């Protein structure tokens, strides 16, 4: 059976595993950013301070720093930071993916040319 990994060199196999890891990381950011849209809209529209977040802030002793009026700015800032990180990872994944595909094409062309060169006999032995 023909295998994709038989075509790859060691360097390309390593780059492929990094590419798969980047895909999982990007999908995790996508899932997190999409799943936070509705709770943040609810918090901002109800103008309420969630108790679970207040308990978390008191656990790490930050409840004096974060006032209720600054809470909405912190939530919006966190949401903006998450979307910036998501966009950055998407961009990095796309650049890495393009580099991988170009290296893969170059590797395949070299491999194909080597096969054609060694099997081609111009003098017809």
Overview of this protein structure:
- With 125 residues, the protein is mainly alpha-helical.
- The protein is built from 5 helices and no strands.
Question: How far from one another are the termini?
Answer: 32 Å
Strand runs, count: 0
Number of helices: 5
Poorly predicted regions are: none
Strand content: under 5%
Determine the fraction of residues in helical runs and give it as a percent range.
Answer: over 70%
SSE string, helices as H and strands as E:
HHHHH
Structural class based on helices, strands and sheet pairing:
mainly alpha
Biggest sheet layout: none
Question: Which outline best applies?
Answer: rod-shaped
If you average the pLDDT, what whole number results?
78
What's the SSE blueprint?
Elements (H helix, E strand, L loop, with lengths): L3 H4 L2 H26 L1 H10 L4 H9 L8 H52 L6
Quick tags:
single chain, 125 residues, mainly alpha, 81% helix, rod-shaped
Summarize this entry quickly.
The chain is built from 5 helices and no strands. The protein is mainly alpha-helical.
